[in-house]
Amino acid sequence: MSELSSLDNDQPLLVAEGLAKNYGRLAACRDVSFALYPGEVLAIVGESGSGKSTLLQLLSAQLAPSAGHVAYRMRDGVLRDLAELGEAERRFLFRTDWGFVHQDPAQGLRMGVSAGANVGERLMAVGWNHYGRIRDTASTWLERVEIDVGRIDDAPKTYSGGMRQRLQIARNLVTEPRLVFMDEPTGGLDVSVQARLLDLMRNLVSELGLAAIVVTHDLAVARLLSHRVMVMKGGRVIETGLTDQVLDDPREPYTQLLVSSILPP
Ligand SMILES: Nc1ncnc2c1ncn2[C@@H]1O[C@H](COP(=O)(O)OP(=O)(O)O)[C@@H](O)[C@H]1O
Ligand SMILES: [Mg+2]
């Protein structure tokens, strides 16, 4: 690693300050502040309705905050307020520097076009135009996510749930994003399929040095993927710390309940 990039890693990639979102009188998210560093995986956990998805949408500029700010370090090293980005910069983040893995693959894939096109499309959006190179890169990525390259011309609507989710990951990672947002990435899958997907995600995230923010109500997902955990309740972050510390020795009574699985998902 060059001196410059190791220096860069001392600087936060994303900073949230006093983030809040109200829906009428409901505070879906209140006063959230933290910094995420390059290569760091943060899990946002909490029961259903605690504000996890709202926070993820605020952090990824899909929702405008009622109060507070999110700043992101662009590739030129400058930390920029997401609310002040121009359209071209926003597009760059959504198409290239960020990835989004949705719980429902139909939200992140085009179900009717081929797997190869699903991956190739992201490359074309960043200016690739050589058909052979696009197809080769798409094939390489299908292999990386353990999809038989013989299925490259099939549409994801013919794929199983686990394959769809792996294809969604390939489509996102092909542009070498620096940050990936995931909302319940294993939520809709059978337990055995979940384990394989988690293992794959864990390896890719570490090989690529990706930063990720993963929303999950499943503490096993947080345990396997994340370095750090934020526990949400009623729109607030009530506990945060290193994953093993928070899950093995939770301070807050609510987190203790969550860890002992007394609370419903
Ligand atoms: N678009 C919306 N309009 C009104 N209320 C919403 C909207 N989105 C979420 N909420 C409410 O905000 C709270 C937090 O929701 P959400 O962020 O989806 O929680 P989680 O992802 O933890 O299940 C819930 O009470 C939910 O009903
Ligand atoms: Mg949610």
UniProtKB/TrEMBL annotation:
Q: Which PROSITE patterns match?
A: ABC_TRANSPORTER_1, ABC_TRANSPORTER_2
Q: Which InterPro entries match?
A: AAA+_ATPase, ABC_transporter-like_ATP-bd, ABC_transporter-like_CS, P-loop_NTPase, PhnK
Gene coding for it: phnK
Any Pfam family hit: ABC_tran
Q: Its Gene Ontology biological processes? A: organic phosphonate catabolic process
In Gene Ontology terms, what is one molecular function of this protein?
A: ATP binding
Cite the ABC transporter domain residue spans from the record.
14-259
> Would the keyword tRNA processing be found if you checked this record's keyword annotation?
no
Top-level lineage group: Bacteria
What family does the entry list? Belongs to the ABC transporter superfamily.
Q: Which organism is it from?
A: Bradyrhizobium uaiense
Q: Read off the lineage from the record.
A: Bacteria, Pseudomonadati, Pseudomonadota, Alphaproteobacteria, Hyphomicrobiales
Name the chain's protein. Phosphonate C-P lyase system protein PhnK
SUPFAM superfamilies per record: P-loop containing nucleoside triphosphate hydrolases
Role description:
Involved in beta-(1-->2)glucan export. Transmembrane domains (TMD) form a pore in the inner membrane and the ATP-binding domain (NBD) is responsible for energy generation.
Q: Which UniProt keywords apply?
A: ATP-binding, Lyase, Nucleotide-binding
